[in-house]
Design the sequence.
């Protein structure tokens, strides 16, 4: 298989089907736009398993993604899409750089979910952009931006319920979307502790990549815990997530 793309956390390979690609999850860890790097053995498999379970539950709740099926130990087949060059971030609770930027305490619950766009451009450090900037620079049109917001808020609604059943607060998360050859917009990339902030409801422990960013340690332990709770959630009826 030919390598089509390699990013910080994944490799994308072509398959015998031109409409399908193979996405391989790497063991690498990066933060601050890859200025900080690390890894741990088995991370790729963990994130593949976490992402596929989340994609599965989202589909049950009516959210379509590029996910098709798991392959091997750390890969999945997905529909081939053209990624829209916007990272869509949804925030439920203030944390990280946003809390610092606003001069407010981390952990403050927001009055409503904030949806933000960031221009996917590594050399520019993926800057925050407004809707009008996205339109003016032809990154996306207004109709696409509105559709991304609606889809992101639906994903947030489902994920919040799902993680609450796992005794986890969904603080914030980043998602990406892509277009199929037919023009349909699908959830793409991944949803894992690499791109979510997840706090244990009882202890407040961080269960995500902030453990790497902030040198908190035990990152593999908490990624495993997220997967364990997701696997136990399979006993929960899907209609509770709608």
Sequence:
């Amino acid at each position: 298989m030919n390598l089509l793309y390699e990013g910080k956390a994944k490799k994308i390979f072509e398959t015998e089907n031109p409409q399908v690609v193979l996405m391989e999850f790497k063991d690498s860890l990066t933060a601050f736009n890859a200025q900080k790097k690390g890894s741990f053995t088995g991370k790729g498999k963990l994130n593949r398993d976490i992402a596929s379970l989340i994609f599965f539950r989202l589909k049950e709740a009516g959210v379509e993604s590029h996910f098709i099926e798991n392959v091997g130990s750390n890969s999945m087949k997905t529909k081939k899409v053209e990624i829209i060059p916007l990272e869509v971030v949804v925030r439920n609770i203030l944390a990280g750089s946003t809390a610092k930027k606003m001069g407010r305490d981390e952990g403050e619950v927001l009055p409503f979910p904030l949806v933000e766009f960031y221009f996917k451009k590594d050399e520019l450090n993926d800057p925050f952009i407004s809707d009008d900037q996205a339109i003016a620079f032809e990154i996306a049109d207004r109709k696409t931006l509105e559709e991304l917001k609606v889809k992101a808020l639906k994903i947030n609604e489902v994920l919040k319920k799902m993680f609450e059943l796992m005794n986890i607060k969904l603080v914030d998360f980043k998602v990406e979307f892509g277009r199929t050859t037919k023009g349909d917009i699908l959830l793409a990339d991944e949803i894992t502790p690499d791109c979510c902030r997840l706090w244990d409801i009882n202890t407040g422990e961080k269960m995500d990549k902030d453990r790497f960013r902030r040198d908190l340690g035990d990152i593999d332990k908490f990624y495993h815990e997220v997967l364990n709770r997701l696997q136990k959630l399979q006993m929960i009826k899907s209609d509770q997530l709608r």
